[in-house]
C-alpha cells in the first residue's frame, strides 16, 4: 500500500513537471546539424512544460514552434523519445527526434514575459553540440546520434566528377 502511494505520488509529480521538446536536425551540404538554443549560458534544445490535457509530443511540436518559429517538423524516427533525470525543482525533460528543412530561425518574444526565452541559436555539428551543452543534455545528443546511425557530424562525400 505504501509502495503504491509512493508510486502514484511520483507519477503525479513527474506528469506535472514534465517538459517536452525536440532534438531538431537539418540537412546541410556538410551533413546533419543540431539546432541549439541559448538561454543565459545554457545551451539546450527547444522544450517547455506540457500543459494540462496536452500530449507530450503535441507539447514538443508547440514548444519548437513557439521558441523558434519552425513549423515543418517531421518525425522520421517515429515517436521514440528519451528523458533526462530530474533537474530544476524536479522537472524531467522528454525529447523527441525531429527533422526540419527550415534554416532561418526566429527567437520570438514570449507574450507572458515580454522578452525572448533565448538569446541565440546555432546549427552545429555533433562535436560542437557536445562542447556547448551541459552534462544533463549530453546523453540526449548521444541518444539522437545513435538513433540516426551516427549521421550527425559526418561529412558528406564530394559528388563524383562526371566530366570526361
Structure description:
With 164 residues, this protein is of the alpha+beta class. Strands 1, 2, 3, 4, 5, 6 and 9 form a seven-stranded mixed β-sheet that branches. The chain has a two-stranded antiparallel ribbon with strand order 7-8. Helices cover 27% and strands 29% of the residues. The protein is globular. The protein has one domain (15-147): Nucleoside Triphosphate Pyrophosphohydrolase, CATH 3.90.79.
Shape-level CATH architecture = Alpha-Beta Complex
N-to-C terminal Cα separation, in Å? Answer: 79 Å
In CATH, the topology is named Nucleoside Triphosphate Pyrophosphohydrolase
How many β-strands, per DSSP?
9
Structural class: alpha+beta
Shape: globular
- Give the CATH level 1 class: Alpha Beta
- Count of DSSP-assigned helices: 4
What is the helix content? 25-40%
Q: What is the CATH H-level superfamily?
A: Nucleoside Triphosphate Pyrophosphohydrolase
Residue-averaged pLDDT: 85
Number of domains: 1
